[in-house]
Amino acid sequence: MRETGPALLGIAKAAARLAATALLAASLLAPATTFAAEATLAEAGESKMPVVISPKASPATRAVADELARFLGKISGATFEVSEGDGTQGIVLGTIGQFPDPSLDKPLEIRGFDGREAFVIRTEPRRVRLIGATETGASHAAFAVLESLGVRRFFQAPEWEVVPSLPTLKVALDLDDRPAILARRIWYGYSLFEHEPTSRPVQDYAAWMRHNRMAQSFTINCGHAWQSVIAEEKEAFEGHPERLALVNGKRQGEQFCVSDPAVREAIVRWSLRFLEQNPTADMVSVEPSDGDGQCECENCRKLGTVSDRVFGLANEVAREVAKKHPGKLVGLYAYNEHSEPPAFELEPNVYVQLTAGFIRGRYTLDELIDLWPQKAESLGFYEYFSVWLWDFDRLPGGRAADIGYLRKQIPRYAKAGATSVDCESGDNWGPHGRGYYIASKLLWNPDADVGSLLADFYDKAFGPAAEPMRRYYERIDPGNKPLMSEHLLAQAFRDVEEASRLAADQTDVQARLDHVKQYLRYVHLRWLADRETDKAKKKELTLAALTHSYRTRYSYMNHWEAIRQSWTRQAAQEFEEPSWAFNDTSVPDKPWRVDTPVTHEETEAAFQEGLVYFQIDPIDERSFSTELVPVNLKGAGAPAESVQSYQGGVKYALYSQGEPLKVTVVTGTIAWYRDRAPARWSVTDAEEKRLAGDRLPLDGEPHVIEVPVPKAGLYWFEFDDSSAGWQIKVEPGRRVVVPLQRDHGFMHAGWMQPMHFYVPKGTKELQYYWSGGPHWVLGPDGTKLREVEASGSFVKIPVPDGADGRTWRFERLALGHLWFFNAPNYLAGSPEALLLPKDLAEADGFVEGAPNE
Fold first, then answer.
1. Taking phi first (over 0 means left), then psi (-120 to 50 degrees means alpha), and beta for anything else, what does residue 3 get?
2. Rounded to the nearest 5 degrees, what angle is found at the Cα of 823, between the Cα atoms of 817 and 828?
3. pTM of the entire structure?
4. Angle between helices 261-277 and 306-324 (to 10 degrees)
5. Does the CA dihedral 738-741-746-751 come out positive or negative?
6. Which of 361, 503, 662, 832 could bond to 636 as cystine, CB 3.0-4.6 Å?
């Protein structure tokens, strides 16, 4: 292996994991390690030892010492002094350089960047040592001790700080620790709404980071940079359009013609200057400007793929950086047109962050996670936990709200050798706070016991209300397949109502529940506004939601800065109220700017409104077997042709009498997305045994797929279009159904052909969940029974006499999220094409080969 300082990043993935013991048995709950001596910090409310720092301690370490003393005082009721000393006694806080001890050299060893956050805790009868390899490590040691004593900072707001009461304070720890992932960030798109270092949001965010040991052993710099090179290397680019990318016959934009030697010289020069001017920087970025538009000239094409060009240029810069600035890194993303690894290995000081979205090319994200470690020694990942324009702070939230996703994906990154994970997020702790907290622990130790961490969260944050709040969070977790509806929100409101009753006498818990209730008020107002058709009422609701979000901004339940920058402008345009927009300076006093915080009484009154509005909507849910069989309906003919068009993958069920399965698919129906990974298809039998599969180009052309089958029976056809759009056709005479999914909906392009479904015998009321556009429901005789307008609701339709045990149909349906509660979840393009669960077919009297009477 070629060894340089940055090459040691590759060692970190193994060394850090070996060195890191799961802090307090991975759940922060274990009181001590086996052989640690016990130290008494306070007894009967009296301090037994001071916090001791070095005379050489920095202002940052002195601030941590003051904070440690303050928390120990809060816990015990004692007064803890902070004094300077030699470290022979007391609660010693500092670095190995300030308090040398050869026995600590190995656990605090710094290998490249790995170790910059390492710390040890050693307890003795008259001394507790909190020693870091650096001052960051010393800070981590201080907050690790506080965690062992029960202190928590679950969410960003101070109300989510938990401090136990322990007049007698003892600790027994013998701990060496360092993070498995060296650079860990949960940061906010749109930023904080106040930026001054002394401002409340900055202070609260920093406090949460300190408590949860969220820091960076080295600083990531992979952001878009080519536009800065063009702007700052004026002599190289002004008057030289030939050095810009050639796109559609024109030289313009902010991308390079990378084959031009002058361009390559300019970016090398710029990169070296950046590192000279920023000597503390660990990395300089050479990431292309955002967007498309890579050069199409012949010389650039000769350099290979876009990835070959981008990373080849990065290699050239990296070689010069290694000469002039050894130990420094050259950073860039694996993103967009350069998501794929190049054909060659990267220099060891090239640092790549693979993005978990906006990837293009031949490979899926999972494939890229496997491929990139083969080319890059220094690798990180860029995640999307919450993006305002994707989730708008609405339930069920983004990836950070899905605990199952965090449990799976963060260890996946660590296993691939990640030394950094950057998580684009929102300052929106209402939908995502639980996930942000769990993510912080997994980023430190990917093997952490998430179950124990969650139990600790519910118990310490909510005390006697732990159980209903566990139900609340699990109910709205995206991984638990919530059906977002008034019914679900009614259940969530009642979980919180029960929690309030159980913790009625605990003011700290009530303060946290007030924050949850304030977030639910936003959910309520947004629910109403999103569904209101009267423009005047929608305007009133929108203003109420904006005002509420502003007044509760210091709870951080909603990402106020994103709302301010995005929603106020959109609302100003929609309702022709330019003064609403944050950037309209003609009216400084915005109508939503009400500086009086929301009171507990207002919070409770609004919560009660939500309890009244969102009502439990009982359903009678049935389950059916997944073994599907053909049935003969009275008067049935041959199945009609089945034709549907989607964006997104879909799984179909087909039945063969022994003839080959045959479908025709048109791939890449959205031309803009044809540069994504090729489509994939597979055919499996009823037992999910794979029979065939392949990839198809996203070319907008029809592709006939024909697969011989070993016998008559049920088969599954699954298609992944890389979200580039696709159409499926199944010729007349074949039985084929679309199985619906409880956990997600579909994106169908336009209205479908009439889609048929079966209503079981004895059904008195058809019940289903719907989220999507309007559609019609027609009974077996073609009578229109309902025009469904509502979305995110339970639909209940009385079954007329004689209409049960027969097929109904949807018309004007663009399939969204549909789930039948008491009918089989299969749609077909004609009644004759339907397949039914075997147990239902037998119960309703279907006999294969004979019509149902």
1. beta
2. 65
3. 0.93
4. 50
5. positive
6. 832
